[in-house]
Every structure is written in C-alpha cells, then in structure tokens.
Design brief:
Elements lengths: L2 E4 L2 E4 L6 H7 L17 E6 L12 H5 L2 E3 L9 E3 L6 E13 L2 E8 L10 E5 L5 E5 L8 E6 L5 H8 L5 E8 L13 E6 L3 H13 L6 E7 L8 H10 L3 E7 L8 E3 L2 H9 L6 E6 L1 H13 L7 E5 L10
Helix pairs in contact: 6-7
Bound molecules: flavin-adenine dinucleotide and FE2/S2 (inorganic) cluster (FES).
FE2/S2 (inorganic) cluster binds next to loops.
C-alpha cells in the first residue's frame, strides 16, 4: 500500500483508506467538512508522488499543476509526500451580521488584501481555532464580501456566525467553484435555480449578468419549504420590474399558489416552468439532493452538460472535524 509522509508523520494507508482518514488516524488535524469532494475544505499539496486524477476533480488547472488535491478523495497508488497542509488564506474582518429571516443571516466582511474572485464563487471561511466551512459570495466586486448563512441548531460555524460581533477576525481561502457569469453569450437564456441560501451565488450571478448587459431571458427560481424561508423577495421583484427579461419565481413546498409563487417540489416545478433548455446556461445551488436531481432533468430538457454549473451545499459528514 502507498505510504504518506506529512509534517513528520510517515504512515502506510490501509486498503481503501483516503489520505484524509490516514492522516487523521495518525493524529494530524486536517480541516475537512463534506468528505465527498464537494467543499474543497481538505485541499492539500503534494510535494512528490501523484495524488491521482480522482483527487483533483473540480480544482483549477493551475492548482492541479501545482499538486493540490482533495485529501478526502485521495487513495494514491504511489507514495505521497505532502508539503502544504492547506492553501494560502487572506485576513478578513466581519463588519456586519444582519438577520435575513428565520435562522438566516447575512454576514459582511472586508479583507485586508485584495481577494480576486468572480461573483458567485465560494470561499472557505476559517475561524481562529481552525474550524473551516465553505460559503458562496453573494456580492459584486467593489461591495463588501457578502455571505448568506442558514443557521443550523447544531451547526458549529453557522451558530457562531449568527452571534459573532462585528470586528471579529477570520481568514478566507479561495475562491473556488465554477458558478459565475460568463459574458461570452449575452443573448443566451439563463436559468438560475436555488433552494434556501442557494440564492446567495445566484444573487451575485444575476446582478453580475445584468450589470454586464446580458440581453437574453433570465429565469430565477428560488425555493424554500414555505414563504418564511424566502428572502430578498422585494429586491428581486424590483429587479424584475426594471429588467423585463428577468422572470423571478418563488417556489414553496407548503402554502397557497399565487402570481409568481409556485407550490410544489422544485424538481417538478422547474422543468415545467423552464420548458426546453437547448442553448440555456443553467446554475443550480443549494440543497444537494435537489441540485443532483435538477442537473439530470435540465440535461434531459436539452441543456448541454458543459452549460450546467452546480454548487451542491454539501454539509459536514460526521464526525465533524476541524
Ligand atoms: C460549495 C459549498 C458552498 C456553500 N455555500 C453555503 C452558503 O452560501 N450558505 C450556507 O448557509 N451554507 C453554505 N454551504 C454549507 C456550509 O459550508 C456549512 O456546511 C453549513 O453552514 C453548516 O456548517 P456548520 O458548521 O454550521 O454545521 P456543522 O457543525 O458542520 O454541522 C453539524 C451537523 O449538523 C447537521 N447540519 C448542519 N447544518 C445543517 C442544515 N442546514 N440542515 C440539516 N442538517 C444540518 C449536519 O448533520 C452536520 O453534520 C456551502 C457548502 C458547500 C460545499
Ligand atoms: S472536499 Fe474534502 S472534505 Fe469536502
């Protein structure tokens, strides 16, 4: 079996064991969250040896060339020496925590150094004790960084973010992800679908598209269990009045249907609303199950796989680790 060397630790991986599991068994603290290759929290850099293609899925070409890989997906076939345990971070200060609804807060941050990103990408927010989680950027360049955070009763980071005082220092790593506006086809239809805080990247992508003069029709569907779970409704309704090519639809599981408000599961409502998706750019964010189901349905409705961008908000897999 392959041996892994990292920070003075030298161990042989057990059959089927990932680098993340091996290093944690050896007593090293390696940040991780989803453990399924979605959040990129466990990114590490190989100094020698190949981590394998499966461990580099979703990383940028430059990151792959530099040997970065996802430890939770890495079952190397050859010995691996690990240099950096985490990617570089920038210092940031929380400047505002504002309630957006039930168990939902907006967090605004400012960085000390410039963070280059595309609106809609996600960053990793790291607390001073090393706890780290992925959050999508809802702002446009030039604005404070904006996160929309669903507060979970047992959530380590989200509960802390909901109560933290402005002035608190954190670190940000990233950006990551492919969910951002591409200005090369300004006439192309766009379909943006998100559940809960899955609206965060879509809010950024939508405003980015409009500010860059996108002319094609845009449909944004925001889903939640009930209307209390929806937010930025007034802002989105105002945008759809200003930009006639924008259709904004709310979708809830429970409640009475009305103009602009659909009742039903997103996985059936969205294909019905969207119709044929040939030539459409599709963005799917939020609840992982719905993202996966909708990706399939959008493909079957004619969207090309290369035009479907998805960020499933996969949660930490217990045991939750920092
Ligand atoms: C690419 C990406 C982008 C993301 N962007 C966002 C974003 O913009 N906004 C956002 O709010 N989140 C986002 N997330 C999710 C985020 O990274 C955290 O997983 C989430 O905030 C919960 O972290 P926590 O530390 O509060 O909970 P943890 O301490 O990690 O959770 C403890 C346990 O509680 C359970 N749990 C936690 N939260 C929930 C929940 N909401 N529903 C059901 N069970 C739960 C899980 O079983 C989990 O194992 C994103 C995730 C990914 C992968
Ligand atoms: S990608 Fe490895 S922990 Fe999420």
């Amino acid at each position: 079996m392959a041996r892994v060397r990292c920070q003075g630790l030298d161990l042989e991986l057990a059959p089927g064991e990932t680098v993340l599991e091996g290093l944690q068994r050896g007593g090293l603290r390696v940040p991780s969250s989803c453990r399924v290759g979605a959040c990129q929290t466990c990114v590490m850099q190989a100094r020698s040896g190949s981590p394998g293609a499966a461990a580099q899925l979703g990383l940028r070409a430059t990151q792959k060339e530099e040997g970065w890989f996802l430890a939770c997906q890495c079952r190397p076939e050859e010995d691996l020496e690990i240099g950096e345990r985490t990617a570089p971070t920038v210092a940031a200060r929380i400047v505002e925590v504002h309630p957006l609804g039930m168990a939902l807060v907006r967090v605004r941050l400012r960085t000390e150094e410039t963070l280059s990103y595309r609106p809609g990408q996600f960053v990793h927010l790291e607390r001073s004790d090393g706890l780290i989680r992925a959050y999508s950027l809802a702002n446009l360049p030039g604005e404070d960084l904006e996160l929309h955070v669903r507060v979970h009763p047992q959530g380590h980071m989200s509960r802390w973010l909901a109560m933290v005082s402005p002035g608190e220092n954190v670190r940000l790593r990233g950006p990551s992800g492919e969910c951002f506006y591409r200005p090369d086809r300004p006439e192309a239809p766009m379909l943006l679908v998100g559940t809960g805080t899955g609206l965060a990247p879509l809010w950024a992508i939508l405003r980015d598209a409009l500010s860059q003069g996108h002319r094609g029709p845009i449909t944004l569907v925001h889903g939640a269990r009930d209307v209390a779970g929806l937010y930025y409704v007034t802002e989105l309704q105002a945008l759809s009045r200003t930009y006639t090519q924008l259709r904004y639809v709310r979708c809830v599981l429970e409640g009475e249907a009305e103009e602009g408000l659909e009742v039903g599961d997103m996985t059936t409502v969205v294909p019905r609303l969207a119709g044929k998706l040939t030539g459409t750019r599709v963005y799917l964010c939020g609840d992982p199950e719905r993202v996966v189901a909708l990706k399939k349905r959008c493909f079957l409705a004619g969207a090309s796989m290369k035009d479907i961008y998805a960020d499933p908000f996969v949660l930490a897999t217990p045991p939750v680790s920092i």
